[in-house]
Every structure is written in C-alpha cells, then in structure tokens.
Amino acid sequence: MTAAAPDVALEVRGLVKAYDGRAVVDALSFSVRHGTVLALLGPNGAGKTTTVEICQGFRSPDAGSVSVLGRAPRDPELRPRVGVMPQTGGAYPGLRCAEMLRLVASYAASPLDPDDLLDRLGLTPVARTPYRRLSGGQQQRLSLALAVVGRPELVFLDEPTAGLDPQARHATWELVEALRRDGVTVVLTTHLLDEAERLADDVVVVDHGRVVAAGTVAELTSSGAVGQLRFRSRPELDLDQLLAALPVGCTAKESPSGQYLVEAPGDVDPQLLAAVTAWCATNDAMAADLRVEQRSLEDVFLELTGRGLRT
Ligand SMILES: Nc1ncnc2c1ncn2[C@@H]1O[C@H](COP(=O)(O)OP(=O)(O)OP(=O)(O)O)[C@@H](O)[C@H]1O
Ligand SMILES: [Mg+2]
Q1: Does the first or last residue of the chain, that is N or C, have fewer Cβ atoms within 10 Å of its Cβ?
Q2: Whether this model's pTM surpasses 0.70
Q3: What value does the CA radius of gyration of the chain take, rounded to a whole number of Å?
C-alpha cells in the first residue's frame, strides 16, 4: 500500500468489491482531508455502504487499497480513533440508552460527557429506556451518540438523518458542525442534498460503484452553470419581444400560466436583471416574486445519475 499524503485522513484507491460476479464497487478512488466533512452521495445501491464498511474493516475488498489515518482498516490501533454509525443497528438491544452510552464512553481515554451528549440529541427523557423500546429515530440518535462519544479522530456516519424529524435533523447537523470545529474528520453518506450542501466541504457522487463527480458543492453546482431568473406576472406576456431586449443566448418561457423563467448561459448578471425589469416596466407588467437562482446540488445529482428509479 502506498502511503497517503500527511494531510489525508482517509484514502481509498482503486477499490473493487463484487458479489456474484457483479462489481458493486468498481475501481473507486477518493480521499478525505483531515478535519473536513466529506459527503458520499449516490442512488440506492450505488455502493456507498459497501465502501464505508470496507473502510471500517467490516468487509474485505477484492482489489484496491484503503488507508485510514495512515493504517490498514483492521489495524486494532484504529479502534479508539475511529467512530462508526452504521446504516442500521449497532447497539445492544437489552441495555438502557444512557447505560449503553456510558459503557462505550468508559472504553475511551477522554470521552465526551455522555449526559451532555444525550441532552444535545434530545435523549435525556429516554435515558432509562431500554434500546429495544426506543423509537426508530431515538435509536438512530443513540447510534450517532455511540459513534462520537469516544472523541474519535474520524467518524463514519451512514445516513445519520434518515427517518429523523426536523428537530432531530437539526440537532444532528449541529453535532456534525461541532465535530468539524473540533477538527474531527467526518465521512457522511446521505440522500439529503440540502444536508450535503450545508455540512460538506467536499462531495463525491457515486453511481454503479464508480465516482461520477467530485469536488466542493460550489464546484459541482457551478459546472456548466445556467443562471435562472424567475418571476410572476400577468399571463401571456410577449416573450419574443422580451427576448429581443435580452442578451443573445437567453431563453424565456411561461409555464404554468403567469410564471416566467428566463435562463442565461453562465450566471445571471446585473445587466440581465436590469434588462428584464426594464422591459417589464416598459410593458406595464409587474414582475412579482422576482428571484435569481443557481443550479442546486439536486439538479446536478439528477443530471449525473439520471431520473430512473434504482432496483
Ligand atoms: N452481502 C452482499 N451480498 C450480495 N450483494 C450485496 C451485499 N451487500 C451489498 N450488496 C449489493 O451491493 C450493491 C450496493 O449496496 P450498498 O449497500 O453498498 O448501496 P448503498 O449505496 O449504500 O445504497 P443505499 O442508498 O440504499 O443505502 C447493492 O446492489 C446490494 O444489493
Ligand atoms: Mg447504504
């Protein structure tokens, strides 16, 4: 295995994993810098959980290499340094919520305060409830607490907010932001693109076990940028006349009735905005709810991975 660069916490190189002759992880490579949050995105079955489980040492790759904090995934030295929140399960069903967290904290050299963590994740009222009687979302939050209580240097969170209510989702986001402030490296898989936009320094989009795009959220959403300007006005404005007043290359459409979309190559600039509002003024048309939008990560994701449902 070639050594990873010193600022790299996790390095995945040419990873391959096949089941029944089908590669579900197919020459996958990416790296995560120390102290940053990486979001691994991809449709159902893309190979995200398989990849992170190989990084955690739970599965063996057929080819390729993984370096976790400079070591092989199964190196016992990594155990106290790496936190894992699996996509499902990961707890002892008979233990009470707080007991379990205190037990895991007791293995760590300088754990976070379990009671504070329960409080931050809204679990104090169920601290004495056995794991199996917690609701799905409460189990999920406890699983997150268990992953981070030992103050790991690197944590893997596999869909940490799936199925959580909005309050719990925000509490989870705040916890991830606090981890990042403390210099913890976070590898997060998610289907929530607003979650990736909010939390991630870097994004890797995986499809069919391969990387189809990688970069910062800003880099991904600005590639091939299309500026969009939307407004509401009276129906059936004369769009040919409007386009004649705009720079070459713009398009305009009304859909549904009374809602207008002007698109321009690159970003919407102040001149385009002024041209649209000036034309509306000349034509005595009020441009209501006028807004300038960027492509979202969701637009980019759907362009990269298509709209078809996965089996
Ligand atoms: N142990 C296994 N045996 C056979 N096939 C498997 C096994 N584990 C995973 N797979 C297959 O590998 C593919 C990738 O699964 P994986 O769980 O890594 O996807 P994922 O990207 O995490 O998806 P999701 O978003 O649904 O969590 C799927 O087609 C899955 O059926
Ligand atoms: Mg998964």
Answers
A1: C
A2: yes
A3: 24
Hey, what domains does the chain have and what are their CATH numbers?
8-221 (3.40.50.300), 226-293 (3.30.70)
For residue range 243-295, what is the model confidence (pLDDT) as tens digits? 999 998 899 999 899 999 998 888 888 999 999 999 999 999 999 999 998 77
Question: Which atom belonging to ligand 1 lies closest to the Cα atom of 87?
Answer: 27
Q: Which ligand is nearest to the CA of 86?
A: 2
- Locate the ligand 1 atom nearest the alpha carbon of residue 47 and give its number: 18
Exposed/middle/buried for residue 59 (C-beta within 10 Å: 0-12, 13-18, 19+) = middle
pLDDT tens profile 135-176: 999 999 999 999 999 999 999 999 999 989 999 999 999 999
**What is the CB neighbour count within 10 angstroms for residue 65?**
16
pLDDT at 2: 52
